Amino acid sequence: MANASPDLDNAEAQRQLNNNNRPISSGLWDTECTSSKLFECSRIRALADERDAVQKKTFTKWVNSHLSRVSCRIADLYNDLRDGYMLTRLLEVLSGELLPRPTRGRMRIHCLENVDKALQFLKEQRVHLENVGSHDIVDGNHRLTLGLIWTIILRFQIQVIKIETEDNRETRSAKDALLLWCQMKTAGYSEVNIQNFTTCWRDGLAFNALIHRHRPDLIEFNKLTRSNATHNLQQAFNIAEQSLGLTKLLDPEDVNTENPDEKSIITYVVSYYHYFSKMKALIVEGKRVGKVLENCVEAEKIVNRYEGLASDLLDWIEKTIAVISNQKFANSLTGVQQQLQAFTTYCTIEKPIKFQEKGNLEVLLFTIQSKLRANNQKPYVPHDGKLISDINKAWERLEKAEHERGVALRKELIRQEKLELLAQRFDHKTTMRQAWLNENQRLVSQDNFGYDLPAVEAAMKKHEAIEADIASYEDRIGVVVELAGEMEAEGYYDIRRILARKENILGQWGLLKELVVGRKARLEQNLALQKTFQDMVYMIDWMEDTQAQLLSQDFGKHLLEVDDLLQTHSLQEADISVQAERVETLNSAALKFTTLEGSYQPCDPQVICNRVNHVSTCLEELKQLADKRHEDLEESRQLWAFFQELEESAVWIREKSSILGAQGYGKDVTSVLKLLQKHKTLAGELLAHRSLLQILSEQSFGAAGIQDHILEVKADWKNLEDQAALRLHHLQEALNASQFSTETDDLLAWLQDAYRLVSSEDFGHDEYSTRSLLKKHRDVSDAVDKHRSHVVALRQHLGALPTQYRDQEVRGAVLAEQLYTEVVEVAVLRQQWLHDALAVYRMFSEVNACELWIDEKEQWLDKMEVPERLEDVEVVAHRFESLDQEMNSLMGRILDVNQIVQQLLDGGHPSSTEVRGCQDHLNSRYWSYNLTHNLSPLTHRQKDHLDSVLRLQNYLLECTEIKSQIQDKRKAIDATQYAGSDLGGVLALQRRLSTMEGALSVLEPKLMHLQVHVEWEELKRTLQGCEDSLMVAGRLQSFIQDLDSFLTWLVQTQTSAASDQLPNTLEEAEKLINKHAALKEEIGRLPIDNEAPLPHAALQQWLQKLDVGWNKLLEMWESRREVLVQAHIFHLFLRDVKQAESFLNNQESALALVEVPTTVETVEAALRKHKDFTTTMELNLHRIKAVIEAGESLISQNNIYSDRIRQRVDALASSLTDPASSSHSKSRNRERAQTSVLPNFR
């Protein structure tokens, strides 16, 4: 009955699918139906649509609730399942298995493939699908899609529900089981009576009762009423979604209807069933976990004492290690001795006590393990760090730290003794250094330097000797510092006193060096001051000698002498400046000694100031004398220089005045320009001398003769300037007149040349020459137009000339204007004549060209003969074809000639008669030629004859080319002879022949109208023979190659089949069997065909050997297969033996841990446990016997592992008898315990 229920549910779903898929009979809509039937059908259809809408919404929410686990979602049930992807993901979530990966793509074929994979999976799950195909889902069939989802819900959600009743233990179907579960859970609720999955759920009390039964804290069921169905449904749905996490598959309006959908309600109620069933399982599991936790807490209390003692001991070890690992010792000999004594006390008193505690801890751990083992509990393993091995390691680290502590203390004691010896040596040396420093400080404190330069220099030498003695003593001070540094580095306990004495010695040493440096500085100051005083004495002597030279009264008697005296005085002033800087340096150096910092003064400052003032006074007097003498010498030089410049200016003025009076004004433009250039040079010289005279006139000297001489020079200068201005004016007038005359002559010469050109009677002898003359005439006309401005400018220039030059040049200007007018008139006439001549020559040229073409064509047509060569025939035909085009072009040219003639006649050309006659002659020639040759029958016959000859020549040429191609192909085929011994060469020749066949297929259509059939047939026969020979050779080479490959494969396969490898495990045995089976499939795919005829006897021998090797391979494969099958059976037997042995070992362990009970409860529990044990033994006993029988069967079949099988069978049989006897003995012991305990209990 249980197995039949899923099939019934699936059958019901398939009936629904079939009913949904069955089309509505067309008779319902027949016009003869009554109105009642029509109403009934429409009502049924509306209810069906309403039911489908509710199912679609419910099933969509149900699908999304499961797809949310993989982050997927659908919006439309009919459309989103069409590609098969979401359907595959839904089945993977529900089944927990991986389906074949969906095919990527959105085409219909891809969708059909994906849906087929899903439907195939359902068939593998024994879900019967009738009349449902992948095309129905892909096409979006509503009824079939809903039926498919309902089938999936039945299989994966409802089919798993099985409830057994207490009376007859009957197993109901899934739907009835779900209904019975709902009735059982709502049995205590008087207002709830669930008899179906439709109307009994309308009021919502059933949903609230299910929730209240399992979670009464969420709903106050007593406040609910049957009349408020919408509120009840909404409350139940909201609480289930918010508090229980159940997806809200239904809405109140979906349930509170006249006919609720049964499938939608079942789908939603199933979610309640699965949630509350899971909740119950979790509660039971929680109780079991609580019991396990109690046992763990009790076990933890047992080991707390051990862990506490272990922690205390480890803490003491770590603290002791931290203390004795501290290498900070007392910094004195006494303190180190006390620490060594304390360490000895620790080693002899404190450590032995802890060692005894360590031994007690090991005993305690052994006691704990024994107790846990006696209580059949898991042996206690201390945490990491609290194991006995960890404690031993910590104890070893403690002993290592003790050893290091003892060694360090002894080293520290030796170091302190060494420091005491160093301190004694330091005290002795510092006492000696102290006395020497005091004596030398007293010596360098005395200042007895003397009061002159020799005495100070002697004191300096004595001080240098003292410095050398002190510098040699510095190494002895360094020894003291080194001793103090060594003690400080070693950490001497009384280092403060040592450092204080060292600092005292260093302080006195530094004071001594400061005193030495100060005394040397004072000596250097005295020495520098005495040297400064000595330099001052030398400077005063030099200034007295120089002062005597500056008092001289010699100022010179002419300009050169005054310059020599000034140069000498400049040298003296330079010496005074240098010496003044030296005096400043000496004074500054001397005054520094008056402002020295400190109390020491090498000399009285007043004495120094007096000497500085005396030197400065002497220097100032010397400077004043030098300045006065320089002024006197400059005045003398100015006077003598003025006399000389004034005399030179008077001479220059007289010279230039004579030059201006003697020169003329020139005769032409060149001479006038040269005179103007000279005059400009003279004007520059006048400008330079004007500034010089102005400077001279500003000089004021007291002598009366000097002023009179200056006035005379000024008067001469005024006359010279007036004379220069007048000459410049005359030169400008002469230049203008010369330029006018030159321009007039040039213009007349050019106009005469232009007149000769424009008055020429040469109009050319042909078109080219006339066109060239016309171009030259245009250039001349342009030049004439450009010279109009020159003529006008010449008239204006004439009016600007002075009167004396104007009368001379007026005749030339008038002549130039008249000649220019004549040139313009003649140029206009000549241009008109040239245009007329050009038109006539152009007309004559066109007429001659047309007549020449007509003569040429007439001569060609009269003498034309049809040639024999094809090239010549094509040339003649081309000329015939172009004749009409050339005639049209000639017609256009004749029309142009007629137009030109008409223009000449209209313009009254002097040669009108000749032009008219030429035109008539040309027109008559053209029309005569046109009538004679274009309309002549002879011309048409020549054209037809030419066309026939051209066609014949083309035919002959084509025949020749085809024959040549056939001969070439024949030679190529004859050269294609196979002489190799490999398949590649044969294939290459076949490709070449295939290429030739393609080329011949192109030639064959051309042979239909050509007479080359004999050559063509012979070529085809040759080609066919070559193809046949190559085909035979190719088959032979291909067979040899296949034979070689097959022999290689045969050798490798025989090697693989002859392998003696035996598997060591069941997996290896299965792998080798599969590999051997694959080898058999490979052998089956390679059949041997020995019936093909072969041309060589050697190949027949190879095939005979191949048959022998093939038969041998089959025998080897069968032999190897038998070995592998036996090995596989043996490993299967070993697997079953191991399972049986494992079971027997577990049973033995359970029997070994059983103790004799002491109370009634423990006796009853032991009896129940032993009963279970006996039942388990009975259930597994037949399996163990089957394993033994299988082993005996393998031995009787002479399996290759018979010896090992015999050993395992005997061992398993002996193990099987021991647990049975032990079980009987334990059972008797429990019965005796029960009989002994019960009287005591009574």
From TrEMBL:
Domain Calponin-homology (CH), residue spans: 53-157, 172-277
UniProt KW Protease keyword: no
Pfam families: CH, Spectrin
An annotated Gene Ontology molecular function: structural constituent of cytoskeleton
GO CC aspect terms: membrane; spectrin
Record keyword Chloroplast present: no
Transmembrane segment boundaries: none
InterPro entries the record matches: Actinin_actin-bd_CS, CH_dom, CH_dom_sf, Spectrin/alpha-actinin, Spectrin_repeat
SUPFAM superfamilies: Calponin-homology domain, CH-domain (SSF47576), Spectrin repeat (SSF46966)
Residue ranges of the region described as Disordered: 1216-1242
GO biological process assignments: actin filament capping; vesicle-mediated transport
Keywords from the UniProt entry: Actin-binding, Repeat
Protein name: Spectrin beta, non-erythrocytic 4
Naturally occurring in which organism (per UniProt): Gadus morhua
Gene (UniProt): SPTBN4
